[in-house]
Amino acid sequence: MPEKNTRKSLCYLFIILILLSFNANAVLEIEVEGGTQSATPIAIVPFSWSQSGKAPVDIAAVISADLTRSGVFSPLSFNRLPERPAMAGKINFPRWKNTEAESLVIGQVAAVGQGRYDVKFKMLDIFTGRNSLEFQYNVAGKNLRRLAHQISDKIFQELTHTRGAFDTLITYVVVKNHIDAKKRVYTLAVADSDGYAEQIILKSRQPIMSPAWSPNGKRLAYVSFEKNRSVVYMQELKSGKRKIIAQFKGINSAPAWSPDGKRLAMTLSKDGNSEIYVMYIASGVLQRITNHYGIDTEPAWSPDGRSLIFTSDRAGKPQIYQVGINQQGRSGSPKRLTYGGIYNAGASFSPDGKSIVLITRERGDFRVATLELASRHLQVITHSKLDESPSFSPNGKMILYATELRGRGILEAIAVDGSNSPQRLRVLSGDVREPGWSPYRSR
Amino acid sequence: MFDWVKENSTAFVVAIIFHLIFFGALFFNWQFDKPEKIVLQQGDIIQVTSVDANSYEAEIKKIEDQKQAKKRKARALEEKKKKKKQEQARRKKQQKQKAAELKRRKAAEAKKKKAAKKKAAEVKRKKAEAKRKEEKKEAEQEKLRLKEQKKRQAAEQKRKAEADRKRQTEIKRQQAQEKADWERRSKGIINKHAALIQNKIRANWRRPQGDYFDFQCRVDISLSPNGDVLSVKIVESSGNIPFDRSCETAVRKSSPLPVPSERALSKEFERMRIKLTPR
């Protein structure tokens, strides 16, 4: 009798197993195709402030502007936030689920005396409630803005798995009173990546041109006409110490640092025509790279330091060429990279070396475009009329360039795929030209 | 028994003959063992009579007599000795004969005994043989019986297994039938809700910016009976964390998912796999 029962129960077990396996196979699979590609909605709650009145820096506003400018995020505007919690325990998640936001950033700022501040922040996933980031800092008041950029970098890194480039610098030339030639003043400036915290590096009555970052971000090379002729200088940012690099007969222009920081590519016309040269900075040894009756200028290094791209009109119209570089100078002959259009100039490499950014002429307008080197696919990413001097952010996600608005030069940044609208950088006044994005900053 | 005798007649006759010999031997043996009567011959004893001493004559006579008597006596003694010697020789011969006879008899007896022993051994062997044969037969019968029993049991088991199988097949068939019916009934509803879920997730799916055209991600989700998303697990990653996260978020954002209100059908949606791809 017990044996019979065992058999019976085994039989049932068998049936149950059959049903289970049947169920496992029958799990519904739904395929979702499509979705929309858009900037990631994120909520950044203004950080609470320990004192009455306003905090010295609105950190949330800085972060929000950074993320917006990247084109990768679309922060909720502050007036659309359903609540303003400063601590995780006070978050009412269902209310946030009704917003577009997927992540929520909250924080606190407290003055702790002697000009120092405690800053805490946290990022949470609205749909899981999980804590994805949590940090706290103690900083001096003058570093609060930089801290905000660093927090932006952390958020960017966490959500895109790409290093953020907000805590970086930009350099540019500002021409003040540019209408009146007699009162015109040129300044070379350095600012945070959002255009704030501007510092003047050099002031001159004569033109300043082509500032270029050294690979370690500690020096700039530029062209100054302060001696009434073009001279290439190198200047240390911290000390302001300057050094003349090139003051040859004729044109000395367009300096570009090699990735190892030991050489400087330049355009010189000391031998009669505008050609590309490479100079060893320490020794002053000069190597001629191009030799053509056409104009060769605007050299830029590939990230591996083994080639230069430059603009040349040797084929009649300005186009981009590439030439190999080794210890002895040139290796091989220049190869043309751009064929589309009648004007392609001012190129520079993306940090991964896979594409270049340049100015292309499209229906009479000068616009920023990227050229993917493998496919030779040229993508125009701006719609403005007179863009110039494009350069990649050090993470390769954004492009900084100058353009013209009502006769005045301004700076704009745009996502590398052109997915967002151009973001204008804050510039106080004047005509802004020739921006350059710094490398990553050492912490 | 009789059958056995018939079957082993030679052995039986031999056995009887041996029995007879044996008993006969026993009988004769008893006769031999009986002691033989022996007649012993004794020497004659001489009687002396005393005579009156008055007469010389008498005396001489007496002495003469005595002499005569002595002579007679010596002769008698001589005779007696001779006889005794003869008797001894005869007895010796007789004894010798007797010993020979005894020896002969003993040999015969030993022979008989040996034969009897042999016969007994033979009988014993026969008996053992018979017994062994009997046992063998019994064992074979037992074996046969067990085999039969096993055969019966196997048949029974087979019958039972067959019945079980039939029952299970029937259960399966019924289940399949029920399932088919149920599927027909509910297919429409399920399809409708699958489409609703698909639409809701698609509408909520915001992909990160970048070239993700060929990417795809599979998530396993579990739902409460009313469609609340309880868990989302990425089971096939696109290899890109932001893309995967956008898929997970799309599903979580879509909670509660539009599942059928009928419990039996909403059950079908408790565990689902969602594949998301931009294509």
Could you name the key traits of this structure?
heterodimer, A: 443 residues, mainly beta, six-stranded mixed β-sheet, 4 helices, globular, B: 279 residues, mainly alpha, Fusion Protein Consisting Of Minor Coat Protein, Glycine Rich Linker, Tola, And A His Tag, Chain: A, Domain 2, three-stranded antiparallel β-sheet, 5 helices
Summarize it.
Chain A is mainly β and 443 residues long. Helices cover 13% and strands 45% of the residues of chain A.
Please characterize this protein's 3D structure.
The complex is a heterodimer of chains A (443) and B (279). Chain A has helices at 2-25, 59-70, 93-97, 144-160; strands at 28-33, 36-37, 40-44, 48-49, 73-75, 103-113, 116-125, 131-140, 169-176, 185-192, 199-204, 208-213, 219-224, 231-236, 242-246, 252-257, 263-268, 275-280, 286-288, 296-301, 307-312, 319-326, 329-336, 344-349, 355-362, 365-372, 377-380, 388-392, 398-405, 408-415, 423-424, 431-437. With 443 residues, chain A is mainly beta. In chain A, the strands form 7 sheets. In chain A, strands 3, 4, 5, 6, 7 and 8 form a 6-stranded mixed sheet that branches. A 4-stranded antiparallel sheet of chain A has the order 11-10-9-32, with no helix packed on it. In chain A, helix 2 (59-70) packs across helix 4. Chain A starts with a helix and ends in a 6-residue tail after the last strand. The model of chain A is unreliable at 13-24 (pLDDT under 50). Chain B has 5 helices and 4 strands, in the order H-H-H-E-E-E-H-H-E. In chain B, a hairpin with a 5-residue loop joins strand 2 (217-223) and strand 3. The longest helix of chain B has 149 residues, at 56-204. The radius of gyration of chain B is 65 Å and the shape is rod-shaped. In chain B, 12% of the residues are buried. The mean pLDDT of chain B is 85. The A-B interface holds A 7, 11, 14-15, 18-19, 26-41, 71-72, 97, 102, 125, 127-128, 159-161, 415, 417, 419 and B 164, 167-168, 171-172, 175, 190, 194, 197-198, 201-202, 205-212, 220, 240-242, 245-246, 248-250, 252-253, 255, 268-269, 271-279. Strand 2 of chain A pairs parallel with strand 1 (206-207) of chain B, so a sheet runs across the interface.
